[in-house]
Amino acid sequence: LLSETSDLVTQGFRAVSEQISHHPPITVFTADSPLWQLEVVNEMNVKLQFGSACISTKGDMVVTLKTTGERFHIRRSKFIVNNLFFGKTYLWPEEETVITNENTGDVAVISFDPKKSDPVKNYGLKGSIKDRTGTVQYLIQGKWNHYLKAISSFTGEEFHIGSITPKTEDMKKEFFFSLFSKNLNNLTSELCSKIPKTDSRLRPDIRAFEHGDINLAEKEKFKLEEAQRARLGNRSGEIQSNWFEVQRNQDGVLSAKLKSNYWEFRETGIWPSTLPDLYI
Question: String of b and e for 34-68 (b: at least 16 CB within 10 Å)?
């Protein structure tokens, strides 16, 4: 919903997101810790094809390392949603992901293997990290549903970059959510006294769905969408944000920075009266 928000405060970092456009759907997101900051704009573009849909994402995605001042700009790959109408629906990445160190000129390029008939051979990726002269410093290997590693092109030494959370049997019954994901919608009395009335954890349709009441979830979702249509009227493509400064550059790419007062309001739990009533 337009103006819907979500936030998260942990011991290691804090994050907040906001929906700033309905058509096209645009979400802005930022997370920061003492060591790093992540700023993301997701401007979704969906093109329907025969039995599938191509999803591309415009907008800046920047990681800043506070310890060194380095900024990494990430250009994300496209995804294809296959078997929309028949068979098992699945998502598959296409094209390349490109990560550029704006300070040093180093560039990482990662490509994804096409889907294969043998599931054991699926999910492969490969890439390289080059310095500003074009010299390959590292090779990247792995599977995007499992792990990622880098290999020095000079010494052959391997560096483990990361792994996904191991799957459990229970995850099959819970949309393959990790323990972290399952707790994102958790709502405590302390949170209720802090979060704004636009927070997604207050959505009645999501709460009903979480408790297994599908019929109630559908009814509540319909009510929320009808109320939004009444609020928006015929407006389309309008960007409005309560918490982010949003800019579009000459190439049409959006960037967004969080206004500092969001966390000040959250600390007190007293929010501006101008925030919209999304869930009534």
Answer: eeebbbbbbbeeeeeeeeeeeeebbbbbbbbeeee
